[in-house]
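Researcher: I need the complex structure. Ligand is adenosine-5'-triphosphate. Inputs:
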Amino acid sequence: MPPRISYKVQNMTDETATPALNFVQTIIEHDNQTGKFEGRVQTRFPPEPNGYLHIGHAKSICLNFGLAERYNGQCNLRFDDTNPEKEDVEYVDSIKDDVRWLGFDWQERLFFASDYYEQLHDFAVQLIEKGKAYVCSLSAEEVREHRGGWNKEGRNSPYRERTAEENLDLFRRMREGEFDEGAHTLRAKIDMASPNMNLRDPTIYRIRRVTHHRTGDTWCIYPMYDFAHGLCDSLEKVTHSICTLEFEHHRPLYDWFLDQLEVYHPQQIEFARLNLTYTVLSKRKLISLVQAGHVSGWDDPRMPTLVGLRRRGYTPEAIRDFCERIGVAKFNSTIETTWLEDALRQDLNRRACRVLAVLRPLKVVIENYPEDQVEQLEAINNPEDAAAGSRQLPFSRELYIERSDFMEDPPKKYFRLAPGREVRLRYAYYLKCESVVRDEQSGEVIELRCTYDPATRGGSSPDGRKVKGTIHWVSAAHCVPAEVRLYDHLFQTPDPNKVEEGQDFTANLNPHSLEVLTDCRVEPSLSDVDPEQRVQFERTGYFRADPIDSRPGKLVFNRIVTLRDTWAKLSRNKAPKAGNKSKGGQKKQAK
Ligand code: ATP
Ligand code: MG
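Model: Output:
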């Protein structure tokens, strides 16, 4: 086994210095200096096609493809398809799509572990010939029992001393389908007393009578991941085989196979996997959410899958930026979900056009505005981007405003509409509330009767009169109805994996993770909005038309993210009450 080398990570000394290298870059630069791999950098992203990719995988994709880019190397996409029971072409296709969407290109280097089954089989035969592997006929239960435990040495299998001839014969017959599942396994002959359980004669081949999604029924024996993975890396001449920290104790085994077979030897490097607050990132748990119907599918916009984030409206740029910001470390930690949302807000702030949309409409009639008059008012599309230009907003006698922008009996610091109060309508005029109309039965306010000041067109008063609040609106005659889906964290506790005894992680699901508003009104420019376009509903958040459910005539918008973090100030164990989400933002902007 090669000695463990420790590398020193450079520190940033001052602001003008180039950012410090992450520890993997430090290793690569060291290797490039010493000529360990002749200056080559060859990485790979090795998903198992047994589920959809999630944001954690994005970290690994950005790292592997990013290193190849940085050092003029190459990154392969290799499917580690060694578990035919759980794998499927559906997953292969979605994974390819996701990697491409993130903006990476494996060019012609798309590989599958199953492409190497014949070579892997030959490697197993070589191990048998070298006396380094044997066919074991213990049952799975007996193997477990012989293996011992952390404080208990293992015992040798009674089949450990079979001759190479006998092993070769049995292994050939295993391949030919002579035996039932579980009758025999091929095991590496390493050390049943090793403190590292991975070295206690691990299984390298097992019999599975399962049709493989690529090789069909050609094989009934399948290699184990630990055996296949390093040898595939070796066959692809990978230089730096980057994997997550839990494989650290597998590295001696990774190295053992390569050393015994005397083949090209990549360097395995482990990094800390991404964990995010309010999120689960285990494929098993994500599958169970889909199967139990807690979400509408893998692409439910609340899922941390790349298809989910993508449908929600995340941009690949924001995800790549997030992966860059969180860096790469050697110790496990949990990243705040706000980091991901902040990367997104920063990206959307630059690119999203501002529009007016009213989520919970309250009708306003401007009594002194001529009945048949319509004005076109100029509205700026994006104050962050002069090139985005401006558009015309129709204004007329009847409008809708946000229900929460009116209070009959407002508290002291409420600067929006109230009886007798005046506010500014964004891009339009000052508006004063004169009286209210109530529902006869419920007494609820259903309409505001207002007046406007024609001298305040554009939003300022020639007499210097100031108003504190600016609210958004749409023209009742011109607006377009829409459904709006307000998505929030899928879980209400920062660590959803932590559960009370007798519960499972679904006990931590956030009951308010989706609120559907069916009676919203958006400005007319959105009537045929392209779902690829992200917009900011002023004062409310970032939105996009749902790429699956929205169409002209029946608009459906997804909230991508609120304008600012609404969870930060809340008690860490309590979800916000529905409807409370953007209050802070509204207040601030209304001033
Ligand atoms: P499981 O352990 O549930 O089978 P996995 O998430 O490890 O799934 P793989 O398909 O084996 O799934 O992962 C492909 C690559 O992505 C691996 O190199 C793995 O280490 C990396 N990866 C997986 N999850 C994360 C994560 N949360 N953070 C960073 N990298 C990850
Ligand atoms: Mg894995």
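Model: Summary of the prediction. Confidence is low (pLDDT under 50) at residues 1-15, 570-591.
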